[in-house]
Amino acid sequence: MLSIRRSLSAFVAVAVGVTLVAAATLLLASGRPQVPDRLARAAVVVQSPEAGASADSFVPTRPWSATTTAELVRRLAALPGVAAAVPDRTFYAQPLVDGRPAGNDGRREDAHQGHGWSSARLGGLRLTDGEPPRRPGEVVVDRALGLRAGAPVTLLTAAGPQPYTVTGLVDGPGVHVADDVAATLAPGVRAVGLLLATGADLERVATAARGIVGADGSVLTGDARGALEPRNDARTRWIGMQVLTATAALAGFVTVFVVASTFAFTVAQRRRELGLLRAVGATGRQVRRMVYGEALVVGTAGGIAGLLVGGGLAPLLGRLLVDAGFEPSTFRVGYEHWPVALSLVAGPVISLLAVWSASRRAARIRPLEALREAAVEQRPIGRLRIATGALLVAVGVALSVGTATADEARVAAQYALYAVMALVAGATVLAPAAVGPLVRILRWPVRRPGGAIGMLVRAGASTATRRTASIAAPVLLTVAFAVLIAGMVRTTTAAYAAGRADNVNAGWIVVPDRAPGLSDQAVAATGGTALLPTTVFENYPKSSPENRPRTALGVDPAGFAAANRALTVVAGSLDDLSGDDTVVLPASANRRPTEPYALVFADGEVVSLRVVAVVTDDSIPGDLLLPRSVVRAHDPSALTSAVYVQDRIDPPLGGRIVDVVGWAAEADRAEDRLVWLFTLLLIGVSAGYGAVAVANTLLMAAAGRVADLRLIRLAGATRRQVVWLVTAESALVVLIGALLGGAVAFVGLLSIRAGLAEQAGVPVDLVVPWSVVGGVVGLCLLLAVLASALPTWRSLSRSAARSVGLG
């Protein structure tokens, strides 16, 4: 006896959930790494050895040295079927326009990269005007800059501004210089592209190349060349994958709860109908099977509708993800089979999971329920439900303790999310038992001296606890996630910023402006203490993992010690950090002063260093310290990340100056922005879903209470009083859900704050964005009031006597 009116709410919930799942999985399937345009014509690419790091670290591969590269290119070029073997050299070079770094798209890493001219063959770039660069001081640039062949241009390099002459134009980002110049600016090589002769067998060439490279690299063909995409693009794509995965998971999780509460409410409304079925001979199993059948029909229909809508929205959402910075500019939406199949299955599976509890309750309805006129619930909550809810709450509390004691912020965030999920589930299961006490606590907003409306509101909520809990469940879920996610992001961001600012002993900091870093000339103009980062690799073949990447900071030891309040030397002396063979390591490296420590630098050279000091792990914003001159000698394209100065100065070319607090707040600004957008996306999904679910459930409730409300009208209540009654009931339900959800979230936030304080060693303030929380609760309250008041007002416009007669 499937009713369209009763099933509409569940259908909408399933359709919205599957829409999000379908769109997210289609976008996930499209998020494959793309072959860089500059290597698209190289059918085979030989890549240097992978770094021994996790997949989400996005560090570059370990480079080959100039000597190794020359020998490798010679042997690869001699292979049958290879027309040319071209090393791809990459270095920092950014054209200046009107005296400032060109305003290229900051998300495109190749917009400020330089290459040797021979690399243009690997991407099929052709001159649109002019001729190739052949001598130092000549360059080919992107024609989008608006320059002409023969015009002068200044390139901002790691050394500083350098004068060049434009000899040609190409239709692509970046700049190209003579190969000899590129070899000086980028002595280390990470990829060699092979251009094949006409008719050459690709697989045979790839197999022969693997024989030459051996364990000192990998050979990539076809789509596998996507591993060569810029690291920033790979990182952006990974962030987008996390966003889409979380959105799909949240959509499925929320859908199960919303549909479960909808079916629970529907079963409560149909007690007399189901009791009548039992009275005419239907068994509990038959009733349960009927409810499952209705859920299957609703889930299938909602799944198909959601798939169609999600598939249509995927291209639009893909463009929005690119604009927001969650996907690289090369992202394109494609349609795969597995997201379609998953979406078709998701609707029925979600519905069947959600209806399990409601079907058990329906099967327990006794035949005498058909004779009951009152809708008072005989038992608001059973023993099994109490045990299940208590178990979920216990799991949530245990995970909260794990959050407070976690050693890493990422682990703590995962524990906190799981803790709130368990607590939300437990609070939803136990909600009917909590309705009565909460109604008594909240009675003051709906109670007036001598008024009957408050009494009816309290009595209705207290006697129909299952109905109240079913309507409050979406609000509980929505508020819990909104408070937890928003509060967690704001609290951690503020805590990390405060910790960074507290560690710096400076008045002002010079940071890059429209450039990825500061040049040596800019650093010299400031006269401050600079950090010159570079990526190095531990060179211990028998260690695991091999080629472990490390962030090395090139510093002046005296200036660094004066600017770093957190610096604590546990062995040796920082003053000995000089020459070309010294290094300072953290205590976790398990090395002592005078011990050797070998590294592979950005130029591919292996250098044996001597440990001169050991510091605590939290003393340096990196993995090790080197003399600045050593970093510059081995990495000609390394850029300074920040310069500490005591007094405000005029910023140099490519830089700007900020105070310490501002620097600490914006140190991870790009990442914080993406995280906050991600947070708002998740909150928007859960808030919109919860508000729609509340509105749908209240619309169903309003349709089922028409006769009761008209009877109240006949008893002497005015239309305004009846509307106020249902409005107050809706507001009370939203407040109950908001209180339960807020309580659950605050447990998680308190554990997160405790964990952050333990990690930072300083007090951490709990930051809750009340505007976001207020907006979520306000949205639920607004839709709840509209969904209950408008149908009630319309139904009361008819004749009360006629309504009772028809009822």
From TrEMBL:
Look up and give the membrane topology term: Multi-pass membrane protein
Q: Where in the cell is it found?
A: Cell membrane
Please report a single Pfam family linked to this protein. FtsX
Keywords for this protein: Cell membrane, Membrane, Transmembrane, Transmembrane helix
User: Which portions of the sequence form the region Disordered?
Assistant: 98-135
Location of the ABC3 transporter permease C-terminal domain: 248-366, 682-798
A GO molecular function term, named singly, is: transmembrane transporter activity
Under InterPro entries, the record lists: ABC3_permease_C, Macrolide_Exporter_MacB
A single GO CC term, please? plasma membrane
Specify the superkingdom: Bacteria
Name the UniProt record assigns to this protein: ABC transporter permease
Species of the source: Micromonospora tulbaghiae
Taxonomic classification, please? Answer: Bacteria, Bacillati, Actinomycetota, Actinomycetes, Micromonosporales
